[in-house]
């Protein structure tokens, strides 16, 4: 039977005569105890997860929380905890229930259907405002899982720089929407993705940016008036003259003066009339590179220090080996390169054609996406892909091109979650390790304790796959 089923990528026929005691909860003979144990542990772990998330969100507001803030935070934690723990409860419940109704397990009822049904009830508990975010996340992971499943069956093969291509195409489309202002015509106008784009590529590229013309004209008026005074003797004299006797201060002040003069010269370089930004195109490009490179470097250094805090405390000498590595600059090179390339290509196109157009974001975004090779990440690439799909769908609804499908977000969430649970039970090596650790934690290790031997009949090497995952993720098949 194993040889027959292994020929198919997703066999849907054939049953196994095992019981839920042998497969679902081999640590207890009672379905009620198995379901209750999982539910109780899921509640405590969900409280830990969402308690941390909501408290951090509250602290990031940067102000003393009011009574309403605290009330919303507590209610939010309880509601999200009920949602997440309800998924675990429903999954275990439907596993046993379907076994009793059908009299056996099949390829769908061993994980896919119970996960789908439990997700249907659980997602309705969560706030509607959070459902889209949850859907994007699980769809992201499910897409990667499906690709890994196809890859393991030799149905596809990995493409070099495939994640970079996905990221570049997705960002090109998002940046075109950003420049054209399409997102303002849909419910995506408050989407945080466009806030990220505004921060990375600058606000001047957004359609109808209100302050761009006034800032540009005021600078050039100031430029025409103040050029004779820059670097004059009057600037170098006065209150600073007495302090310049200090050699160190004198060197620093001279260096700052030279720096300001160079920056001023760069700002005064040519700026095409079609460009919406103030100052010169050269300064605009350099500003994007410098700003995002600094931010990327700061993030990377901070993460390295936080993750290696114990080593640094044990011996400060480890600081050098932790920070002075090539990969420390990867995130900075990606962010700085992306912003700089995007701005530079746009300015070149505007100079060449003599006008600005939202369509210029396509070639600019594709070229800027090459910087992703410095910091490739499949999760980020797939997130951008799904974000493009979401916003394009909303635009299609707004323009009357596609109909609004009620409950589509909830259905996609349930379907994606079912795929992830199916992979976690039948072929966990195709699941993202971080998601396996999440399932292992939220179930108190029970997902690893479920007996995989009856599932080996489908020829997917399930038991061996579980052993490899446990070793890879350093998790154990032990109840917590």
TrEMBL record:
Keywords: Membrane, Transmembrane, Transmembrane helix. The keyword Transmembrane helix applies. InterPro entries: Tmem135, TMEM135_N. One of its GO terms (cellular component) is endomembrane system. The keyword Transit peptide does not apply. Pfam families: TMEM135_C_rich. The chain crosses the membrane at residues 38-60, 81-101, 107-125. Its main location: membrane. It is found in: Endomembrane system. Belongs to the TMEM135 family. This is Transmembrane protein 135 N-terminal domain-containing protein.
